[in-house]
Amino acid sequence: MLIMLDPSDIITALAGLTVVAQVIALITLVALIVSLATKKHDGFIVRYIHAHGLVLLFIVALTATCASLYLSEIAGFTPCKDCWLQRIFMYPQVILLGIALWKRDRNIALYIFALSVIGIFLSGDHYGDQIVQAFFPEQLDEPCDATGVSCAKAEFFRFGYISIPLMAGTAFLLNIIGSLTMLTRKPKHS
After folding, report:
1. Rounded distance, CA 97 to CA 108, Å?
2. pLDDT band at residue 185 using 50, 70 and 90 as cut-offs
3. pTM for this one?
4. Which helix (H) or strand (E) holds 187?
């Protein structure tokens, strides 16, 4: 027997995952700041991310990529120009991190950081357009490219604030914090 899941339920689950990711990002950011401020790099969270950073970054990038493909290819939301720009900076992370995992190359953190910084700025700008449109709906909601889709139109706001670019921005934020943690913690030599 095949169970069909309602796309609305999956979108709500993705939004819930986004909230969990935001909490993880906040806790990790605080741990990283405390670690840097005290010059002690032996906190559990920082140690854990340093030890498992490649896997964690890969999971974030893979989840974000699969979620964006689900939203466009299964749920039927046509990506706007801004969505495509964000995808340009997330999709390669899956391939790069996959190769880095295979090669055990932790130096990838710098490249993931760079891609994620650009991606989070794009996500933030896109989310800002959606917030302006939500507060000022009388403004024109014109398409931003030939697809006919407006970048300012939010397909949904789950929990009152989560939209597609905020989901992407949260993934970029996690990979920024994770890659920064990998870059700032010096490994102990045995």
Report:
1. 7
2. low
3. 0.91
4. none
The tokens describing 71, both together, are 């939203």
**How far is Cα 25 from Cα 178, in angstroms, rounded to an integer?**
9
Show the tokens assigned to 6: 């309602």
In sequence order, what are the beta bridge partners of 162? 158
67-104 pLDDT per residue, tens: 999 999 999 999 999 999 999 999 999 999 999 999 99
Amino acid at 13: A
Q: Which residue has the tokens 């999709």?
A: 91
Torsion of CA 141, 71, 98, 116, to 10 degrees: 30
Spatial distance between the Cα atoms of 96 and 113, rounded to a whole number of angstroms: 12
Count the residues in the chain.
190
Residue 172 pLDDT greater than 70, yes or no = yes
d(CA 137, CA 134): 6
Cα 68 to Cα 63: distance, rounded to the nearest angstrom: 9
